[in-house]
Amino acid sequence: MSLTRAPIATMASGAEVALYLHTLVGSAGDGPTVGICAAIHGNERTSTEIVLEASRAFSGLDFKGRLMLAPVANPLAFEANHRHTPTDEINLNRVFPGQSGGWFSEQLALVLSREFLDKIDVLIDIHSGGDRPTVDYVYIRNAERLSRAFGSRVLYRGAPDKQGTLFAGTSVSVTEKRDVPSVTIELGGGLIDQRPYVGRGIRGLTNILATLGMLDREPTPSPDQIVVDSIVTSRPRMGGFLETEAPALGETIGAGACLGRVIHPQTFEELDRIDNQVSNGIMILSHLTRNVVQPGDYGYMVGSISV
Ligand SMILES: [Zn+2]
Fold this sequence. Notes:
This protein has 307 residues and is an alpha/beta fold. It has 2 domains: 2-211, Aminopeptidase (3-Layer(aba) Sandwich), CATH 3.40.630.10; 230-305, CATH 2.40.50.100. It has 6 helices and 16 strands. It has helices spanning 45-59, 75-80, 104-115, 144-149, 171-177, 195-211; strands at 2-10, 16-25, 33-38, 66-70, 122-127, 133-139, 154-156, 182-188, 226-234, 240-244, 252-253, 258-263, 270-275, 281-287, 291-293, 300-305. Strand 6, helix 4 and strand 7 (154-156) form a beta-alpha-beta unit. Helix 1 packs across helix 6 (195-211). It is globular, with a radius of gyration of 20 Å. Zinc ion is lined by residues 41, 44, 127.
């Protein structure tokens, strides 16, 4: 395994910020270079845990091709435990491919594009749910077989916008231009034990490698999977304790069912009730413990099951 340090910039403090990229060269011969990145959003730390464990697991495997790992794509946001880069409050995953004279996040995006996204044949971009919400689904982009191979129950096939991308400026918008098969994974997060999600992450990545023919084994068939074609995000209107009533992630929910209630932490009154608006819905993001939320935080995400 080799480690490359790609400098990004010297900050006002004098501290140097750099990206670290690991390259694992398989011992079983030629094959594609699969790039796995995490923490494009700095508070999604389960994604980085998955890459850490993947590096340990895959170091001992005979595989074809190469793996490139970018465990912390946004180091300053990771340090601050923020979704966006604290220096400029920009969402890194909206400014790819970046530019050299732009905001810090745009400079960072440019380094990621040149040093990572432009050098890989397959992209696996891992996201998670941050400190409080927990999430569980996989995007179907230009590589449905690989997205399905990860093994999550719920898949999301979003409708492209006029530019042909789901969100402009994402990591996948760079790789899709080169027809690089790309998978975006949303998994884990919340104030619960992350080990089951990390374990699923390793099994899912292993199965993607098997599906690509990089491992000397047959891929494991995926479980029954459900495809959603739209997602509704419901945010609390008030802050306080959020008490979830929604069913578990991956369970179905009907329109009008209560997702959760916001309780005033001092007076104990009910400030808000969040109802599901999706008929034929399925839970894909939720709060699994009684979490403190701000108005407008991530509350719940419900997918609309394709018919
Ligand atoms: Zn994210």
